[in-house]
Specification:
Blueprint lengths: L5 H4 L7 H9 L15 H12 L9 H13 L4 H10 L5 H10 L4 H12 L4 H7 L4 H14 L4 H10 L5 H11 L3 H12 L8 H8 L5 H10 L14 H4 L6 H8 L25 H4 L2 H9 L11 E6 L4 E9 L3 E5 L5 E5 L3 E6 L15 H13 L7
Antiparallel strand pairs: 1-2, 1-5, 2-3, 3-4
Helix pairs in contact: 2-3, 3-4, 6-7, 7-9, 8-9, 9-11, 10-11, 12-13, 12-14, 16-19
The structure holds heme C (HEC).
């Protein structure tokens, strides 16, 4: 029971505006024993009271409104937060709510926030975030829109899919977001059939359309799209199917260490080369689905700091690698083999960030489906040690 619950201190059963007026005049000092509260207890009391008053119009009291807005700023994401916004729909809060939702786009609270934004006719805040220029924010916005924009989803996201300017991660997220509804799947399928879907989105599209719950979509997609074949010439099952299967982590640990396989580029607990991120605790960071996407469609979401660069020297040598260091005089790249190569600026003709990952795009060709599942099972066991 909350100690600031109005019933605990003040007889609030009358639920009248008069009571509210009394609360508004109470000095916050009476709550001074509360250790540095983020939420002003007086605001909380006001909030609880206005929520009890069935037909209270927030616009009728500036002080109540100010208290509500302060409370909303201090306690984003709480149940009360959403209840208040849903009830009073204060337009002043839409920017904050959008920011909150974007920061929590993979959580229930973020999606709830996005729902409210559309309910308040402020969905445009999320639409604007797609064009923020920050990849993570754009992906979050696209994902949220896929969850809540309902019949507007296609109008908002199809242009994103088609945009040549958007980063691949954002376009991929748009394909996935559209595919949450049958209508969205149909519009993606239309792009595929008409040859308008960009090549770098085909894995994402195949993955969702070939696991569609609608047999007609699935059948039509199968005529145009294929998931890449694996080493045993079996077509790769869609990720939605793969994540249902369990593998053998011991066999996975062995496959992970095959020549030219994962260990060649990833460190695990001190072993291996450091071309890609250290995977020692990756099972605590990524979901099973995200691990599959990392392996099968590596360019769709390139980890921060692991963008690859291509460099052409004046004698025509082309080197692709991660940027290890860049000074006024020299550029050092780490190649796929894990070798650091330093080039004098004088000899560099071109130097450019690449859109594709350093992680090979077709690793599954070297793996059977079983090996792939085993590797993912093993990767999921790589977790942070439990805290003491
Ligand atoms: C030629 C080098 C190379 C090989 C081989 C390779 N990777 Fe990677 N991997 C990378 C690089 C570089 C990145 C970072 C860029 C990116 O996210 O695409 C990466 C990213 C990842 C990520 C995402 C990590 C994160 O923090 O988000 C996972 C998971 C991963 N690799 C797993 C594997 C597994 C499993 C294998 C073996 C089946 C493998 N990789 C083989 C280079 C490689």
């Amino acid at each position: 029971m909350n100690r600031f619950s109005p019933t605990a201190k003040t007889p609030m059963s009358t639920k009248t505006l008069a009571t509210l007026a009394i609360i508004l005049s109470v000095r916050p000092l009476i709550f001074a024993d509360e250790p540095a509260p983020q939420v002003n207890p007086k605001d909380k009391l006001v909030v609880e009271t206005v929520l009890r008053l069935k037909s209270f119009d927030l616009e009728s009291s500036t002080r109540a409104k100010e208290a509500v807005l302060r409370y909303l700023k201090a306690d984003p994401g709480s149940d009360q937060y959403f209840t208040l916004i849903e009830r009073f729909k204060p337009q002043e809060i839409t920017e904050d709510l959008a920011r909150f939702s974007l920061q929590h786009s993979t959580e229930t609270s973020g999606v709830r926030g996005a729902e409210l934004l559309f309910l308040m006719n402020a969905g445009s805040t999320l639409e604007a975030a797609i064009k923020s220029g920050d990849e993570k924010t754009s992906v979050a916005a696209v994902t949220l829109i896929g969850h809540v924009a309902a019949e507007r989803t296609e109008a908002i996201l199809l242009p994103v899919v088609a945009s040549t300017k958007s980063p691949l991660a954002v376009r991929t997220a748009a394909v996935s977001a559209l595919s949450r509804s049958v209508n969205g799947q149909k519009s993606v399928l239309t792009l595929v059939v008409s040859g308008k879907l960009a090549d770098d989105l085909k894995f994402a599209a195949a993955n969702v359309l070939l696991s569609s719950s609608d047999p007609a979509i699935k059948a039509e997609a199968a005529k145009h799209l294929q998931l890449p074949a694996t080493a045993d010439a079996q077509p790769l099952p869609p990720i939605a199917e793969l994540i249902q299967r369990r593998g053998d982590p011991v066999a996975g640990a062995i496959a992970f260490r095959k020549t030219n396989m994962c260990i060649n580029c990833h460190k695990v607990k001190g072993e291996g080369k450091e071309v890609g991120p250290d995977l020692s605790e990756i099972g605590s960071k990524l979901s099973r689905e995200a691990v599959y996407v990392s392996i099968l469609d590596p360019s769709a979401a390139i980890s921060h700091n692991y963008e690859s660069y291509a460099l052409v020297t004046d004698n025509g040598l082309v080197v692709v690698g991660l940027l290890v260091s860049e000074t006024d005089d020299a550029i050092t790249l780490r190649t796929q083999e894990g070798l650091d190569k330093k080039f004098s600026r004088q000899n560099v003709e071109e130097f450019e960030k690449q859109k594709i990952s350093m992680m090979p795009q077709d690793l599954q060709k070297q793996l059977t489906v079983t090996e792939l599942i085993d590797i993912v099972e093993y990767v999921m066991t790589l977790r942070k040690p439990p805290e003491e």
